[in-house]
Specification:
Layout: E1 2-3, E2 6-7, E3 23-27, E4 33-37, H1 64-69, H2 87-117
Antiparallel strand pairs: 1-2, 3-4
């Protein structure tokens, strides 16, 4: 494998430049060039697919085992639906619920007015 004009050896069996075999060349204190294997990056948590699959801000992008070892505060946001929905989706839900309740009240008032007229 050639990086920056100098040849370095892979340290593992896989010799192809695949997604799982990404490396970084590093110079050791002894002056040798060696490769360090890079980990794959996680896309991070997303909102549910039915709501648009947007990334959730404020939450670390961790891989499965790292996520299991992580602290609770790294996995959530201190808010209703924190770590599951984004702030704008929560806001939308609150507004929708409020408007539905208002609509029910209006229907009740109109029904009561209709009874009074009869």
């Amino acid at each position: 494998m050639v990086i920056g004009g100098t040849r370095v050896h892979y340290r593992r069996h896989n010799m192809y430049n695949t997604k799982s075999n990404k490396v970084k060349t590093v110079k050791t204190p002894g002056g040798r060039l060696v490769v360090q294997y890079r980990k794959k990056l996680s896309k991070g948590p997303m909102t549910p697919a039915s709501l648009g699959s947007k990334p959730i801000p404020g939450i670390k992008h961790l891989r499965t085992m790292e996520r299991k070892r992580a602290r609770h505060r790294e996995l959530t946001v201190s808010r209703a639906y924190g770590g599951v929905l984004t702030h704008d989706l929560v806001r939308e839900r609150i507004i929708r619920a409020f408007l539905i309740e208002e609509q029910k009240i209006v229907k009740r008032v109109l029904k009561a007015q209709g009874k009074k007229r009869r």
